[in-house]
Amino acid sequence: xxxxxxxxxxxxGEQPFSVLLGTELEVLEEGKAVLALAVREELKQQHxxxxxxxxxxxxxxxxxxxxxxxxGDSVTSEYKINYLRPAxxxxxxxxxxxxxxxxxxxxxxxxxxxxxxGGERVVAVAQGTITKVE
Amino acid sequence: xxxxxxxxxxxxGEQPFSVLLGTELEVLEEGKAVLALAVREELKQQHxxxxxxxxxxxxxxxxxxxxxxxxGDSVTSEYKINYLRPAxxxxxxxxxxxxxxxxxxxxxxxxxxxxxxGGERVVAVAQGTITKVE
Amino acid sequence: xxxxxxxxxxxxGEQPFSVLLGTELEVLEEGKAVLALAVREELKQQHxxxxxxxxxxxxxxxxxxxxxxxxGDSVTSEYKINYLRPAxxxxxxxxxxxxxxxxxxxxxxxxxxxxxxGGERVVAVAQGTITKVE
Amino acid sequence: xxxxxxxxxxxxGEQPFSVLLGTELEVLEEGKAVLALAVREELKQQHxxxxxxxxxxxxxxxxxxxxxxxxGDSVTSEYKINYLRPAxxxxxxxxxxxxxxxxxxxxxxxxxxxxxxGGERVVAVAQGTITKVE
Lengths: 134, 134, 134, 134
Known about the structure:
Strand content of chain A: 35-45%
Largest sheet of chain A: 6 strands, antiparallel
CATH superfamily of chain A: Hotdog Thioesterase
Oligomer: homotetramer
Distance between the termini of chain A: 27 Å
Radius of gyration of chain A: 14 Å
CATH class of chain A: Alpha Beta
Helix content of chain A: 25-40%
CATH topology of chain A: Thiol Ester Dehydrase, Chain A
Structural class of chain A: alpha+beta
Shape of chain A: globular
C-alpha cells in the first residue's frame, strides 16, 4: 500500500459520516480514486432503491479524493450529478478521475456503478470542482 | 396539517436513510418544501464540519419534495450544488421551491442554511430537475 | 453612470463576440449585473426560437459580470443552466447576482427572461462560479 | 454519408445561429456527435481567447446532436460546463456521446478541444440532459 492510499484511508476513518455509512477506499493514486459502499437497508429510500443522497455523497466524496490526490487536503466546491437509473444491488462503487488541475483547483469526473449478481451498471455520473484547503 | 404535508411526512418516515439521518419535514405546500436536520457528530467530516454529502442529501431531498408537491410521486433526475462555506451549527435547513413545472418535470432551486446561535448562514445552493414517477 | 458601469460597458465593447450578438449592459453595480440582447433572425435555431447557445452565452456573461463587480477582472469557471421554456420575443434579459464571494471566487445565480408584448417570462436559470483573473 | 448525418447537417443549416457562427457537423452516428468551429476574431472575448459563450454553445449543440441521434428531434433541457483552460487555436471541436437513454431523455457528456499547431487540448467538459420534442 502506498503512503497516499494509507493517508486517504486514515482520513476516511476520520469522517464520522463515512464511518456511519460504511464507505471504503479501494483505490487512491495520483489523479484517481475509487470508493465503495455495501448496500444495506438503512441506505434506502421508500421504493427500496439506494437513496439518491447516498449516491450523491459517494460521488462527491470520490471527486474530493480524486482532486485531493493531486492537490493535497481539499474540499468539493461544486458538482453536478445526473442519476441514470435506480441504484440497486449489493454494492455501490464510485470511480473518479482528474480531468484537469492547477495549483488550487482540479476538475474531476465520477461514475457511480451498482454491482448486482456479479454485473455492474452505471447509476450516476458527476462532474465537479475540487479546491485545495489553504 | 394539510393532507399534502401528512403525506410528505409519511414518505420521509418510509425512507430508511432519512430516518438514519434524522431529517424532519417542516413545510410542504404547493411549490415549496422545507427539510431540517439536527447536526450531530455522526454527520461530520474530518474537519468538524457537516459532511458535504449530508448537505447534498438534504438539498437533493428538498428539491424532490418541492417538485413532488406539484408533480406527485417524483425523483430527482439531476442537480447541481455549490457549497458556499463550511456547514457548522446546530441545525441545517433546506428550503426548496419550484421555478417552473410541466406535466412530467419541474425545475427547482434550493438554499441550505446552517443555524448557529440563533442566526443563519447560507451554506449551499442547488438547482435541479425533478421527474414524475410513472 | 458609475465608473463600474462605464468600465463594464467598455469591456463588453472589447468582446468581439458580444458585439457580433449585439449585447448591451443595462445594469452593473456591486453584486449585480443585467445584460440585454435584442432578438433577431440570426440568433435563432431551426424551430424559430432563440438558440439555446445564445441564452447560455447571455447567462454566462451575466454571471461573469456579476462576479466581476465584486472580484474585478474575472472569468466563468463553471456554470449550470436549466432551460425552462422556448425563448421567444423581442428581447432577452439576463439578471445575475452574487450569492457569496471570497477573495478569488464568487458564486452567482442568473435568470434569463424573454420579453414579448410587454410581458416577460423566465426562460432559463443558471448558477455558477466566477474566478478572479490573477 | 448516412441518412442520419445528412439529416443532422440539414438541421444545422436551418439554425441561423449555427450558420452565423460557422459550425460544421463532422460526425453524427448513433450515440455520438462531433461539431467543429473555425476560430475567428468575431468569436473572441476581450483577452483574445474564444468567448466562453461560444464554447458553451458548441458543447450544448453537440450534446443535443448526440442525444438527438438516439431520440430524434430533441432539445437540451439542462447542462453543466466546466471551463478547463482558455480556448485558443485555429479550431474548436466538441465531441459528445450518450451515456444513457430512455424513450424521452438521454444523458450525454461532451469534451470541447481546441486545436492549435496540429495538437489539441481539452478546454471544457460538459454534461447534460437531452429531451425528445413531442
